[in-house]
Amino acid sequence: MQTQKSPADGRVGVVFVASPLFPEASAMELIARTSKHLGSEGLADQFAVASKLARDRASCTEAFAQLDLDKLDALIIQLSTFATAELLHEVLSHLGERRLPIALWALEETDQIITNSLCGVQLWASTLTRFGHNFTLLLGNPDDTELTTDLAAFAAASRAHRRIRGARIALIGAHADWFTNLAVDPWTIRRHLDVTIEQMTLVKFLDGCKVEPDAEAVASKRWAEASFDGGDDEAGRTTLGRTYARLAAGLDKIKADAIAIRDWPEILYAENFKGTWGALGELSDRSVPLAPEGDVMGAVTALAARAFDQASLPFLTDISGIDRHNDRLVLWHYGVSPRLADGPRSLDPVLKQETFPLKAGPLTLMRLSLRADGQLRIFVSEGEMLAQKSQANRAAGFFRPDAADSETLIRHFIDEGYEHHVTAVYGRWATAVLHLGRQLGVQVDHV
């Protein structure tokens, strides 16, 4: 499998603008503080700073000459002082047809007004709105803790925006039988996200799943620490290694940014692919996100999560149980990377299901979703995967949301007609999702 873009390729550009009517010394002092702040821990290597202060057309051109716009994920414009829309027109001229997300950075002045930055941002924001441009507001001074979090989230969202726009999603087969809520109109998703769905038949895919015995033997070692309820551990590992190697060989032939695969019933119950669900869990570690059950929007969501954090292992999950007394939900699914396990891995006698408890830690549930009217929206909720182990089979655990109780979350999810899948990713990414929603110009449903 091969991805078309690397989230490490781009950074967020930062340009400073000011008016000759305000003290240049104040603006230059802000540039120095901001540049130091953007190089600090948690933000380093995510921003490309144009050190030239843009105060007129000529200096604006010099500032943009310090940036490679084609390699940027987004552009932050700090109004180091109030500035009229004359410079905004210059900025837009430099951007041209590039669809870079824009953030306007306003400074916080609590008493004496030195820069009048906030008023300038209001002027620029209303002008962008009239031009039909989406924008994000960043508010605060360099070294503000909350601003640091917001800057990191904006950078993460910008990576996701770049990764999604123009992405190619391979759909192997179709959605699972009668999972009609997962159906996606290729024209609709192209219109909203510039995403192309490239579909291939299961027959063609399986025809490409051929591999040498040596590869099967190597793959079987992935289950060296797993136990087998059937008793014959070595035979189980051999079978799983064969299925993993064959599926990997077929996936290697697909050039896409993310893949949605119809894994059952055709592959799951095929004699030569016994242990498909366990193999999919191991395959989810690979660089190209993989969504089972033919869930195209699940694949797109996983693509965004991987852009937030390239090392993350997002996984598709069902919200399958609720414990109202203890305010927690049961997350439960197959195809989850065993690197997320916090306990032993076991496989049932027929090798259909691999079971392990999910590790504890902060977790975000999210989903890019298409409504019945064809409009795009995003669901997100942060919380904790609890340390207490669930007794459910497959990859399972207890999730407790932060901002709402468990019943409120699941009732809202159902009442709003969201598909029965969410993508889970460790970490707290709700703020990044909110930024991504503004960049895409879509509703974010933050629960």
Instruction: Enter the CATH topology name of the largest domain.
Output: L-fucose Isomerase, Chain A, domain 3
| Count of DSSP-assigned helices | 13
Distance between the termini: 35 Å
Strand order of the largest sheet: 11-12-17-16-15-18
CATH class of the largest domain: Alpha Beta
Overall tally of domains: 2
Overall shape: elongated
Examine the secondary-structure arrangement and name the CATH architecture of the largest domain: Alpha-Beta Barrel
Counting copies of identical and different chains, the oligomeric state is: single chain
Count of beta strands:
19
> What is the helix content?
25-40%
> What summary fits the major beta sheet?
6 strands, antiparallel, barrel
Average pLDDT reading: 95
Which blocks of ≥5 consecutive residues have pLDDT under 50?
1-8
Range of strand content: 15-25%
The radius of gyration is 24 Å
